[in-house]
Design brief:
Elements: E1 5-9, E2 13-19, E3 34-40, H1 42-52, E4 56-64, H2 67-78, E5 82-89, E6 94-100, E7 106-111, E8 124-130, E9 140-146, E10 160-161, H3 165-172, H4 177-186, E11 191-195, E12 201-203, E13 206-208, H5 221-234, H6 240-251, H7 263-270
Parallel strand pairs: 1-4, 1-8, 2-6, 4-5, 8-9, 9-10, 10-11
Antiparallel strand pairs: 2-3, 6-7, 11-12, 12-13
Length: 271
């Protein structure tokens, strides 16, 4: 089967990350943190993940007229993503403030900025989108939606919807993944895949166990899963979910939302 192009319609951010021993409570200050600035945004993360695994990827997004915007665009291009549809607008580039503890758990706050201007009407083959930007079903043959952050949108015409378990509950009011999946299918999604963190993935009425790894940083693991799933669909992989689970597991073993595994690494874990 010929490899198809993935059009990622979504957010492009810069992540301002502080690594701490434990996540602070309300009103608490946690010292001795380590700071780093890394490219992020769910759309950009998923685009980089898919490109790292060999997919042909085009990014549709917006950045600001600032240093963060230039850095984000240059990073995408260097990672093999087509950036001709990334526009520069007057709003500032999106920013995510992230705290990560020594167990890989995180707290995240986002200022969307330029991401609020993202839109596309160009027809494409496979569209991959999220909810950090305005959502309208893309004019695509096959649509993958990662409904994050969770908010009600129409699922009509969505081929695969991939929330995590928290997002699935927020969207449906159901804590049980099976019940949540049924609600999302009734709302129009043709297939529902719910990621469950270290417990695995709910897909097709059953839970598929996760690969066991030592997590260093879980930021971006969900994006690695979604990007890898899209890449596997684009090439006609026999088991896109298991392929995506391997990519997400490996993403947890390294810091940074875009420090994604290579194709060789994923195939090594699968074997």
């Amino acid at each position: 089967m010929a490899r198809r192009t993935i059009t990622v319609i979504g957010s492009v951010n810069m992540d301002l990350v502080v690594s701490v021993r434990h996540l602070p409570r309300v009103g608490e200050t946690v010292g001795d943190g380590q700071f780093r600035v890394v490219p992020g945004g769910k759309g950009a993360n998923q685009a980089v993940a898919a490109a790292a695994l060999g997919a042909s990827v085009r990014m549709v997004g917006c950045v600001g007229e600032d240093a963060y915007g230039r850095l984000a665009r240059e990073n995408l291009a260097a990672r093999g993503v087509n950036v001709r549809s990334v526009r520069t607008v007057r709003e500032p580039t999106g920013i995510a403030l992230i705290l990560v503890d020594e167990h890989g758990r995180n707290l995240i706050a986002v200022a969307p900025g330029a991401n609020q201007r993202v839109a596309t009407r160009r027809r494409c083959d496979i569209a991959l989108t999220q909810l950090e930007t305005p959502y309208h079903r893309p004019p695509a043959r096959f649509v993958i939606l990662n409904p994050a952050p969770a908010r009600p949108v129409s699922l009509r015409g969505v081929d695969v919807v991939i929330p995590n378990e928290v997002e699935a509950e927020q969207l449906t009011g159901q804590r049980d993944p099976a019940k949540a999946a049924r609600v999302l299918r009734r709302r129009g999604a043709r297939r529902v895949i719910i990621t469950l963190g270290e417990r695995g993935v709910f897909d097709g009425g059953a839970c598929r166990p996760a690969f066991r790894v030592r997590a260093v940083d879980t930021v971006g693991a969900g994006d690695a899963f979604v990007g890898a799933f899209a890449a596997a669909v684009a090439e006609g992989h026999s088991d896109p979910v298991r392929f995506a689970q391997a990519a997400a597991a490996l993403a947890c073993t390294r810091p940074g939302a875009q420090n994604v595994p290579s194709r060789k690494d994923v195939e090594g874990l699968l074997s």
